[in-house]
Every structure is written in structure tokens, then in C-alpha cells.
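Whiteboard transcription, Tuesday session. T.W. wrote the C-alpha cells on the left side:
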């Protein structure tokens, strides 16, 4: 039986033994430390599906949760957990549209933006800068899709059992295709 979490950042998909990834596979694919993985569970940022006895359950992560973990790792270098939660809520609100993963994530002051067109973004920044005195700091955080590509490369390098079969038809495969076209 599969249990779903009630986390606000939970995905629409349920993991099972054939499509999900166990704890060791997640650690291998993402490079996350086991203690950090436990922390994500404890804080409800990424809540794995737990199957079996409550003292020592089988822990299964959906492919989408593995993506979340990789994104957290990548974004945590530059953003707070609160900002990362907001990004995840943004993705949930837009139903994880693959095109979002091809956008650049930018910070202007305290605000975060997904930028499709750098020209349009530049025009926006120029219009905002006229309203403020001083300089505006723009910081490029990167494309979320880059983390997906890294995740896929690591899974193939580590020879995760049936990885391609488990990723087929998922958000990971779709985003990888979007990133390959760039």
C-alpha cells in the first residue's frame, strides 16, 4: 500500500516500488547527505512515501520528489528555505509546466523572477530602476532545468537500476527534452 503525504509541496504523483526510488538511490543520484535527506523529511519540505511497519518503513521517493531534492540542493547555495518553498509553490500553481524549467531564475533585490526573455526582463529592470535611487543588484541564480540535466546524468553514471524505464513519461523526461532543445 502506498501512503501520500499531506505536504504543501507534495506532487500529484504517487510513488510505488516500480516507479519510485529508495533512499540509497536518491542519495546516489542527488549527492545529498543522508542527514540532509532526513532533515527534508522532518521539515516536510520533501516527504517520502513510507510503506510497511512504522518503526522501520520502506521509504520511497517519486521521481518528482527526487527532482525537488536536487533543486533544493542547487538552490540552497543561494536561497533560503523559505524562498525555495515559494519557488515550489510557484511550480505547483503552474502544474510543473516544463517550459518553466527552461527559464532563468533571477533575483532583483529581494524579489525572485522566472525570466523567459532577457530583453523583456532588461526593459522591466530599467523601468523599475527609474523609480529608485541608486543601483539595482541583479543576480542570476540559473535555470532549474540545469539541475534536472545533472540529475539525469548522475543517475545514468551511477547505473541506477531501471532508471530510464522509471523516468519514462515523467516530468524528468519532459524537462530533459525541453533542455535538450536549447
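and on the right, the sequence the group agreed on:
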Amino acid at each position: 500500500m502506498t501512503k501520500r503525504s499531506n505536504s504543501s509541496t507534495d506532487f500529484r504523483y504517487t510513488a510505488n516500488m516500480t516507479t519510485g526510488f529508495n533512499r540509497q538511490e536518491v542519495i546516489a543520484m542527488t549527492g545529498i547527505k543522508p542527514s540532509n535527506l532526513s532533515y527534508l523529511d522532518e521539515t516536510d519540505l520533501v516527504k517520502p512515501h513510507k510503506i510497511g511497519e512504522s518503526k522501520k518503513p520502506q521509504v520511497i521517493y517519486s521521481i518528482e520528489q527526487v527532482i525537488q531534492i536536487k533543486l533544493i540542493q542547487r538552490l540552497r547555495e543561494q536561497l533560503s528555505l523559505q524562498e525555495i518553498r515559494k519557488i515550489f509553490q510557484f511550480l505547483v500553481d503552474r502544474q510543473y509546466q516544463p517550459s518553466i524549467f527552461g527559464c532563468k531564475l533571477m533575483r532583483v533585490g529581494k524579489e525572485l523572477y522566472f525570466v523567459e526573455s532577457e530583453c523583456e526582463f532588461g526593459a522591466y529592470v530599467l523601468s523599475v530602476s527609474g523609480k529608485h535611487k541608486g543601483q539595482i543588484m541583479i543576480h542570476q541564480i540559473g535555470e532549474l532545468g540545469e539541475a534536472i540535466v545533472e540529475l539525469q546524468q548522475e543517475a545514468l553514471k551511477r547505473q541506477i537500476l531501471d532508471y530510464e524505464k522509471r523516468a519514462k513519461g515523467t516530468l524528468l523526461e519532459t524537462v530533459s527534452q525541453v533542455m535538450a532543445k536549447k
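Someone added at the bottom: The chain has a mean pLDDT of 83.
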